[in-house]
Amino acid sequence: MAFRARMGWDFDWVSAGDGDFNYDFHVSFRQDEPVYYNYADRDFECEDLPGMSVFRKAADGTIYHTYSVFSRGTELASGVFQLLDMTPNGRNETGPNGDLTDWVKHHDKYDGGASSCGCGGKTA
Predict the structure, then answer these.
(1) Can you tell me the distance from the alpha carbon of 47 to that of 60, in angstroms, rounded to the nearest whole number?
(2) pLDDT digit of tens for each residue in the chain (124 aa)?
(3) In terms of Cα–Cα distance, which of 103, 104, 108, 102 is closest to 120?
(4) Considering the entire predicted model, what is its pTM?
(5) Residue 90: which residues within 8 A CB-CB, separation 6 or more?
(6) Which contacts of 49-53 are long-range, i.e. CB under 8 A and separated by 24 or more positions?
(7) Which candidate, 19, 20, 47, 102, has a CA 20 to 30 Å from the CA of 27?
(8) What is residue 48's DSSP assignment?
(9) Which domain of life does this protein belong to (predicted)?
């Protein structure tokens, strides 16, 4: 969990990075396999697409998959999108990627480094 350490986070994490979870829940894809995303068959576009799933662990230990959402539906989980949509430039998705990754970065990727972030007041 190197990313967790890099960000300075101390809360519990669960990662799907080393297994087939993301493939099983149809948000990661292999170029040589069929792509099923957002409840439809598609052509291969990329290795990963956005999706969120919710699970419930019952008292007996059984884990239930209770909800999944994909694509633009994941925006509901991030209040920042609704705030940006009210501003004159909106999300400013005008760069080469056509999304927020053109200008939003992890706190340690800005020119000033971690000391310039507002993430819990942590500094380098």
Answers:
(1) 36
(2) 788 888 888 887 777 777 899 999 999 999 999 999 999 999 998 999 999 989 999 999 999 999 999 998 888 887 888 898 899 988 888 889 888 888 888 888 888 655 544 555 555 4
(3) 108
(4) 0.63
(5) 84
(6) 50/74, 51/25, 51/26, 51/27, 52/77, 53/25
(7) 102
(8) B
(9) Bacteria
Pair (54, 83) in one structural domain: no
What does R_g of the chain's alpha carbons equal in angstroms? Answer: 18
Q: Give dist(CA 18, CA 87) in Å, integer.
A: 39
Are 82 and 65 part of one and the same domain? no
For residue 9 the two structure tokens come to 């986070």
Domain, as residue range, for 118: 78-124
Q: How many CB atoms lie within 10 A of CB 117?
A: 20
Tokens of 7: 């960000």
Specify the number of domains making up the chain: 2
Distances (CA, A) of 24 to 4, 30, 36, 55, 101: 24, 12, 10, 14, 26
